Hints:
The protein has helices at residues 19-27, 63-77, 101-104, 114-117, 214-218, 222-231, 268-275, 306-317, 330-341, 415-419, 433-438, 445-452, 456-467; strands spanning 4-6, 45-46, 95-96, 130-135, 151-152, 161-172, 178-189, 201-206, 233-234, 239-240, 244-248, 251-255, 321-322, 352-353, 374-375, 383-385, 403-405. With 469 residues, it is of the alpha+beta class. Helix 2 packs across helix 8 (306-317) and helix 9 (330-341) crosses helix 13.
Amino acid sequence: xxxxxxxxxxxxxxxxxxxxxxxxxxxxxxxxxxxxxxxxxxxxxxxxxxxxxxxxxxxxxxxxxxxxxxxxxxxxxxxxxxxxxxxxxxxxxxxxxxxxxxxxxxxxxxxxxxxxxxxxxxxxxxxxxxxxxxxxxxxxxxxxxxxxxxxxxxxxxxxxxxxxxxxxxxxxxxxxxxxxxxxxxxxxxxxxxxxxxxxxxxxxxxxxxxxxxxxxxxxxxxxxxxxxxxxxxxxxxxxxxxxxxxxxxxxxxxxxxxxxxxxxxxxxxxxxxxxxxxxxxxxxxxxxxxxxxxxxxxxxxxxxxxxxxxxxxxxxxxxxxxxxxxxxxxxxxxxxxxxxxxxxxxxxxxxxxxxxxxxxxxxxxxxxxxxxxxxxxxxxxxxxxxxxxxxxxxxxxxxxxxxxxxxxxxxxxxxxxxxxxxxxxxxxxxxxxxxxxxxxxxxxxxxxxxxxxxxxxxxxxxxxxxxxx
Length: 469
């Protein structure tokens, strides 16, 4: 039986800045509400509110670029098979996580995972989840890689299956409104090799990210991100963000992609290898190489060309970003004011810019249309400690278990339209906007507290603002 816990809101007065300093923060170039608020991604903004809102090319995608866009779209969406003689749609397995990119990212969004519908891994070749496993000391297990592959082709045993159970607690806001939080507990069953004891195991589960604005994210100005890192220090609120820094193709650069900002590109090559089991020039070995699943399995060489993978890279990079909606609605405008009142903007930065040089895709194609754009992703792309409640213990680069990249909020209000659900956070434990906010601990605790202390009308208005993004 759920117990009711009354949320105690700590005194915010001691945390508030003077009116002048607070206004200075709100109006500085990184927190300023956008005058062109509707144009989420500059010239890549599209005015779409339907199921294809994440899956429509930017208007400047024409001619040969458009032809390649649709080629990449097909390679992204069409299920792959285990056939060895089909260079465009074969090569899946022997271990994999999904049959296509689109199986996990339906309409370039977040497919509803079997984590919720089946209580864990699916049994029909589909889960739409990633299961990261490591030792407690951060090392990998001999018979497994960094990802537990819970799907496999016919005649091959999957590495294991995920099971999830939830503990539900009911809380009350200061004005009496109740809400519930679901805390997951993950277990691995049906290990293909040695069973790993739970006390030796870290499990970090991720549901898919929205592929909104991926081209703009990869084109972010690194100098601006470094400036944000230097300026992201608000001791009065307990907030101090940091960049994740990674080595990619022997170059040191800030990470911007993924839940822990541990990627500097769209990971197309990695996705084909690890998620689909499709070998390529960058990852020529099967993910099960050296494991017992490979016994009797023939090697078929490179299963997708770099040219084809770049079409997928191009498809993702040239997707349009949905425009903001209802920007003149008084309730939405009130919600935007409350977003700033709750200090959400200190991590979910409204306005950033892409670098002046044209991004280059994995096979050399340049996309000058993505350069020198003013964009409104509502993220600083920095890592923030979100507290013990969201500590997965899984490390990635400089990111500790409780540190997560500020989620870009653009397009978030259309997720239910595109994918039919409002599951948020890295593992989907939050079932709506209110729960997502109330999971914020650590550096997010000040926003959680200020939001909780608002009137119900102000809280609802803030949620309406998020739905407008």
